[in-house]
Specification:
single chain; about 375 residues; mainly beta; 14 strands
């Protein structure tokens, strides 16, 4: 076959392919999407009728945000072609296999909360992620997160995680939620010096010494652990809210200089002395119930308090509360209180609970006209 013949031969072949592409999109990359719910969602986005063909080119044209949360999606086959997505929400489905997401390299925000995911190796290739949610799954191994160094927000609570060492070099994290897992060692967090919000609730943590360098923290939640010693918190001067309830704390000395605190939860510990709280003048909400407190004198100057819960202690003298005129909620039940006259001037009170005490005279409450609950 001479040269012109060869050229014409290939031109003819190209023409036939082009013709077939126009009249048969399947050859141009028709995509199989076996999950009917997912297919219906994509048809809706593309403005297609039920059963219309969907090509890979059309899927690549879906940009920016895709929300398929809470639909009952099981199979992500076909999703590998949505390569221009930047925000993807697949929370509250029935997903276990997320391999089709591996090629979505433009993703910056991904939500996979509340699925049935165990294996997250696919996520290791999504290096542009800045926010990732994979809470409420069955994940044990988070080593695939090791290279996701652009992450700023990570939510991995309610899983089966015990080893968080893969987080050690995620230095851009500002928010981290790893509550409700099986974590005892948090040494890997020591270098995450950009963290502003950290939630470690409901784990098996006793040693929090690695938190002492996290001086940018504004919010820290470490309730329901096994913590006794809180001295590593003494330099965290930017904290505005701190939850330490349901631990084994006796000494509050480390808190005395945390003057930016507005919310403090210390209930269900073994606290007797409130003296370190004396200077926390910005507190608006304070929870101290179920401790072993007798004297509340250190609270007398905390006049920005709006909500104060002291129930289930050993308190008898309410005099220190006399000038806390901003209180709207006050819980004092299950103490040893007989005289409630110090409450007579707290005229902003809306909710007041005094049952299970030794009170016989309620007349000091006569002028508390805003009370709706007693």
């Amino acid at each position: 076959m001479h040269k012109i013949g060869i050229k014409n031969y290939f031109l003819l072949g190209y023409s036939l392919l082009l013709f077939a592409t126009i009249y048969n999109p399947g050859i141009a990359g028709e995509v199989e999407i076996p999950d009917e719910i997912l297919r219906a969602k994509i048809e809706q986005i593309l403005g297609k009728s039920v059963g219309d063909s969907i090509t890979s080119r059309e899927l690549r044209e879906i940009r920016s945000e895709f929300d398929a949360s809470d639909l009952g999606v099981i199979d992500l086959t076909g999703f590998q072609y949505l390569t221009n997505l930047s925000i993807l929400n697949l929370a509250k489905n029935q997903l276990s296999n997320i391999e089709p997401l591996a090629n979505l390299k433009n993703l910056t925000h991904l939500n996979l909360d509340s699925n049935q995911i165990i294996d997250i190796r696919t996520l290791s290739s999504l290096k542009n992620l800045v926010a990732l949610r994979i809470a409420n799954n069955q994940i044990q191994d988070i080593s695939p997160l090791l290279e996701l160094k652009n992450l700023k927000g990570l939510v991995i609570d309610h899983n089966r995680i015990s080893d968080i060492s893969p987080l050690v070099n995620l230095n851009n994290l500002t928010g981290l939620v790893i509550s409700n897992n099986q974590i005892s060692d948090i040494g890997s967090l020591n270098n995450l010096k950009k963290l502003t919000l950290l939630n470690l609730s409901k784990n098996q943590i006793s040693d929090i010494s690695s938190l002492n360098n996290l001086i940018t923290l504004t919010g820290l939640v470490i309730d329901n652990n096994k913590i006794r010693e809180i001295s590593p918190l003494s330099q965290l001067n930017e904290l505005t809210f701190l939850w330490l309830d349901n631990n084994e704390i006796t000494n509050l000395g480390a808190l005395h200089n945390l003057r930016k605190l507005t919310e403090l939860r210390l209930f269900q510990n073994k606290i007797t002395d409130l003296t370190p709280l004396t200077n926390l003048k910005n507190l608006t909400e304070l929870h101290l119930y179920n401790n072993q407190i007798r004297s509340i004198e250190p609270l007398s100057g905390l006049d920005n308090l709006i909500k104060l819960d002291l129930h289930s202690n050993q308190i008898s003298d309410l005099t220190p509360l006399t000038n806390l005129n901003n209180l709207t909620e006050l819980y004092l039940y299950k103490n040893q209180i007989g005289n409630i006259k110090p409450l007579s001037r707290l005229d902003k009170l809306i909710k007041l609970s005094l049952h299970s005490n030794q009170i016989s005279d309620l007349t000091p409450l006569t002028n508390l006209n805003n009370l709706t609950e007693l």
